């Protein structure tokens, strides 16, 4: 009988919802699983009085633009409005507005109420919704923002600076796990590099883990471990974006699905243990095994800074790694500026070929591999 693909690998799971399904997917593939919920197992908390007050504020005048961020949030808001007898008025108010939705789940919740979005980003990132509005004159516009589980106060403030009148609607809040001990134990496993990977299915879970790591005094250890040996596996780009603040490289599947994330680990973890082989888009076979780098069988000598950049880029080949993440990955003692990143990238290109690393304007860099 052949060995299961994740036999011998230890994976941490931070999810609170659908956790039985995720653990089963991992264990069926041979992984040893350590579970520590980052968030409360209780349903997302809704402050009914606060939500009603915000709803009545929305209904107090015409809405020019509406930004929808989550499907679960929209569903809960409409259901609450029905209890108060305000659902028809709410739909009518939003129907007259320009609607921008963050992703397919919020789009689905809107369409079930007969509302149509004007635009939604392919990335499912709220930052791209804001980028879509860049350059537009928002003076005097009344914008309603449906918040997800974490506050979007900074986004609302940015819109106000551009002349908009902004009403934020907090449908629910996510809170950290009731018992923090399992999370502190998981943090020690990450920091001590006794895990091969950790999975995340929401951005708030990333924030909760980093908050707990800070409280335990091990945040720097966690960041360093995830930059080198422990894979941060995310269900999609929205969750992965929460790691950019910390300079942690991540992997995530093309489709934001739990099974796809686990499937990606099936290939990612064994390739790291046996050595990674990548075909570069510009031509050439890149082999990495430990600290050794070979291009078409010839050893490539890299100084510490370009070697660190390469390590960060190969964690998620073909996907963008932000300049901030690359800067954090540089060895201590390297000049702390984006110029240091640019110099390291230039040296890496000189070693691997000018087409090996592509610049993605305003976002960062990506390792150009065949098929991307």
Descriptive account of the structure:
It is globular and about 70 Å long. The two termini are 35 Å apart. It folds into three domains: 10-42 and 177-271, Rossmann fold, CATH 3.40.50.10090; 48-170, Rossmann fold (3-Layer(aba) Sandwich), CATH 3.40.50.10090; 275-367, Winged helix-like DNA-binding domain superfamily/Winged helix DNA-binding domain (Arc Repressor Mutant, subunit A), CATH 1.10.10.10. The protein is 42% helix and 17% strand. The protein has 372 residues and is α/β, with parallel strands linked by helices. α3 (71-83) packs across α4. A five-stranded parallel sheet has the order 2-1-7-8-9, with helices on both faces. The chain has a four-stranded parallel sheet with strand order 4-3-5-6, with helices on both faces. The longest helix has 17 residues, at 258-274.
List the defining traits of the structure above.
alpha/beta; 372 residues; Rossmann fold; 3 domains; 5-stranded parallel β-sheet; Arc Repressor Mutant, subunit A; globular; 15 helices; 42% helix; 4-stranded parallel β-sheet
Order of strands side by side in the largest beta sheet? 2-1-7-8-9
CATH architecture of the largest domain, please? 3-Layer(aba) Sandwich
> How many domains?
3
Strand content: 15-25%
Roughly how many Å is the radius of gyration? 22 Å
Content-based structural category: alpha/beta
> So how many helices?
15
Spatial separation of the terminal alpha carbons = 35 Å
How many strands? 16
* CATH-defined topology of the largest domain: Rossmann fold
Average per-residue pLDDT, rounded, comes to: 89
CATH level-1 class of the largest domain: Alpha Beta
Task: Flag low-confidence runs.
Answer: none
Level of helix content?
A: 40-55%
Shape: globular
Biggest sheet details = 5 strands, parallel
């Amino acid at each position: 009988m052949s060995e299961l693909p994740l036999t011998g690998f230890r994976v941490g799971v931070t999810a609170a919802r659908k956790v039985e399904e995720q653990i089963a997917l991992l264990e069926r593939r041979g992984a040893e699983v350590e579970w520590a919920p980052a968030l409360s197992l209780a349903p997302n908390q809704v402050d009914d009085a606060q939500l009603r007050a915000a709803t009545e504020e929305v209904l107090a005048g015409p809405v020019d633009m509406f930004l929808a961020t989550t499907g679960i949030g929209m569903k809960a808001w409409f259901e609450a409005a029905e209890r108060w007898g305000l659902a028809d008025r709410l739909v009518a108010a939003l129907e007259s507005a320009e609607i921008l939705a963050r992703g397919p789940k919020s789009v689905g919740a809107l369409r079930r109420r007969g509302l149509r979005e004007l635009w939604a980003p392919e990335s499912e990132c709220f930052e791209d919704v804001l980028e879509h509005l860049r350059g537009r004159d928002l003076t005097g516009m009344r914008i309603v923002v449906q918040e997800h589980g974490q506050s979007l106060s900074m986004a609302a403030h940015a819109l106000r600076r551009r002349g908009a009148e902004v009403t934020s609607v907090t449908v629910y809040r996510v809170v950290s796990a009731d018992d923090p001990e399992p999370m502190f134990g998981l943090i020690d496993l990450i920091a001590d590099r006794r895990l091969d990977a950790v999975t995340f299915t929401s951005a708030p879970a990333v924030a909760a883990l980093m908050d707990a790591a800070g409280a335990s005094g091990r945040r720097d250890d966690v960041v360093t471990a995830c930059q080198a040996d422990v894979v941060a596996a995310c269900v999609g780009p929205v969750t992965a974006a929460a790691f950019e603040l910390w300079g942690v490289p991540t992997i995530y599947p093309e489709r934001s699905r739990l099974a796809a994330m686990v499937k990606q680990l099936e290939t990612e973890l064994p390739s790291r243990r046996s050595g990674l082989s990548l075909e570069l888009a510009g031509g050439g076979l890149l082999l990495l095994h430990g600290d050794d780098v070979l291009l078409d069988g010839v050893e490539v000598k890299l100084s510490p800074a370009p070697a660190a950049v390469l390590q960060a880029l190969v964690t998620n080949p073909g996907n963008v790694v932000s300049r901030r993440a690359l800067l954090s990955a540089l060895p201590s003692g390297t000049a702390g500026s984006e110029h240091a990143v640019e110099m390291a990238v230039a040296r890496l290109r000189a070693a691997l070929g000018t087409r090996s690393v592509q610049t993605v304007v305003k976002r960062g860099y990506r390792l150009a591999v065949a098929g991307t």
